[in-house]
Amino acid sequence: MMSNRTPATQYAALPFRLRNGRPEILLVTSRETKRWIIPKGWAEEGVKPCDMAAREAYEEAGVRGTVDHRPFGNFRYMKRLSTNKSVLCAVTVFLLEVDEMLDEWPEKGQRERRWLTPSQAALAVGESGLVEMLLRLGIPPD
């Protein structure tokens, strides 16, 4: 069921690392549907958007690193809250260069995580706006 209300705000991390000069993206599975996603969470008052994204990367993917303070992009998607209720979410995405992958993290038992090339990640995720960002990350600079 769609509504005309203002979308809910979420902040996301796009965790990446460079391997032999090429970017790899870390995706995690969602808890409910096991779809491949990037770590994201609801906006919180008093928490900077880039810091929220970094916190979600730690909680959901078990990674720490350097988060870019400038947004890399935005996308919208429908988040399923229950069997018959969804909410439109506007997600602001921040790049996070992974420095450390932890063996233990808060949501370890609830999610899988996997390193993929940008094109593999683009095929794995379902949100079209996110696909565009993943492909953009895979394009080498001029």
Short synopsis of the structure:
This protein has 142 residues and is of the alpha+beta class. Helix content is 21%, strand content 43%.
3D structure, described in words:
The longest helix is centred in the middle third of the chain and has 13 residues, at 49-61. The radius of gyration is 15 Å and the shape is globular. The protein has helices at residues 49-61, 118-124, 128-137; strands at 8-19, 22-29, 36-37, 40-42, 63-67, 73-82, 85-101, 113-116. The protein is α+β, with helices and mostly antiparallel strands and 142 residues long.
The first-to-last residue Cα distance is: 44 Å
Strand content: 35-45%
- Could you describe the largest sheet, including whether it forms a barrel? 8 strands, mixed
**Total count of strands:** 8
Structural class: alpha+beta
Number of helices: 3
Helix content: 10-25%
CA-atom Rg in angstroms: 15 Å
Looking at the structure, what is the overall shape?
globular
Instruction: Please provide the ordered H/E string of secondary-structure elements.
Output: EEEEHEEEEHH
- Unreliable stretches covering 5 or more consecutive residues: none
Report the average pLDDT across residues.
92
